[in-house]
Structure formats: structure tokens, C-alpha cells
Amino acid sequence: MLQAKKVATATIFGVVIFVTKTVVPTPMNKMLVVVQALLLGLGNLLLNKKGATYVAVVSGVLTALSNVALAPFTFSFALLYGLLVDGLFFIFKVNTVKGKLKTGRSMAAMTLSTILVGLLSYYTSVWLGLIPRNLPLEVIILSVGIFSGAIAGYFISIIWNKQLANHLK
Predict the structure, then answer these.
(1) Which terminus, N or C, of the chain has the lesser number of Cβ atoms within 10 Å?
(2) For residue 15, which of 71, 54, 41 has the smallest C-alpha distance?
(3) Coil, strand, or helix at residue 26?
């Protein structure tokens, strides 16, 4: 893929993530983490090994600009999410030699990265005193992370194997 197309793809994916995180009202935006996970995973596949990180940088910068008070944390967690997706896709060998994705590995990589970022951002907020510790909220974050990551990983595999892999050959 040409460099300009890679930049355009990362930018479009990043803007869509930004919109789902900032324009969509709370609590609906928290339910749409599956969109972020899906686009980060597809970014990894479409833009090569660092694609999720590129997408995360775009969305992180835009989201940080919308909430300047928490900008360093917003950007850091967005970047961490992209790095985790890229790293776990590599570690789990999600993309096989024949170009087909392993659905279970894609689901595992996305689930683990979503849970880690969700819990880490929550515990950082607790540590900074922004929110009190809340066991039911911890369970919800863990549950949403598992559900969103698994759903995103499944759809990444379906979209790649049935649509994109054939068109990008």
C-alpha cells in the first residue's frame, strides 16, 4: 500500500475512533470500545506491523485535544492500546503465512489488549484520586473488555478472511 494511502487509512480510522469516544454521549461511548478495538486490529493488518499504533496516535492526539486537562493520560492510554494490539498480534502470530487470520488468536489478542488498557486506565484514575475504587465498576470494565475484545477479534478475522485478504493480493 502506498505511503499516502497508509496515512489516509490511519487518519480515517483515528477520526472514527475519536468520534465514537467524544461526540457520542456517555455512557454510549463506553459501549463503543468495540469499534476502537476493531479499527486498531484492522489497522495492524492493513498498515503492517505498526498499524494499530499509527491509528492510536491519530485518535489519541484528537481525543487529547478534546480534553486538555487529561491529555497526557488520554494520549498515553491510546498509544498503549495501539502498542498492545500490534505486539499481541505479533506474539500470538495472528496473521499466518498464507494470509489467513486465526480467529481464536485474533480474539485472544484483542481481548487481552482491551482488558489490560481498560483496567490500567481505571486503576490509574483511582490512584490519581479522580474516581473512587468501585468493585462493581471493576467487574463491568473486565466484562466489557472481554466482550468487546472478543467481538472485535472475531469480526476482524471475518472481515479480513472473507473480504480484505482477497482484495489485497
Answers:
(1) C
(2) 54
(3) coil
Instruction: Name the CATH code of domain 3-167 (choices 1.10.1370.40, 1.10.1760.20, 1.10.510.40, 1.20.1530.20).
Output: 1.10.1760.20
CA distance 29 to 66: 14
Helix 103-127 and helix 33-46, axial crossing angle in degrees, nearest 10: 130
Amino acid found at 117:
V
Q: What is the pLDDT along the chain (169 residues), one digit of tens a residue?
A: 578 999 999 999 999 999 999 988 766 777 789 999 999 999 999 998 899 999 999 999 999 999 899 999 999 999 999 999 999 999 999 986 677 899 999 999 999 999 999 899 989 989 999 889 989 988 988 898 899 999 999 999 999 998 887 777 5
Residue 25 is classified by DSSP as P
Among all chains, which residue has been given the C-alpha cell 490511519? 10
CA distance 161 to 94: 12
- Domains of the chain by residue range: 3-167
Round to whole Å and give the CA distance between 78 and 147: 19
Single pTM value for the model: 0.93
Of 106, 109, 108, 45, whose CA–CA distance to 81 is shortest? 109
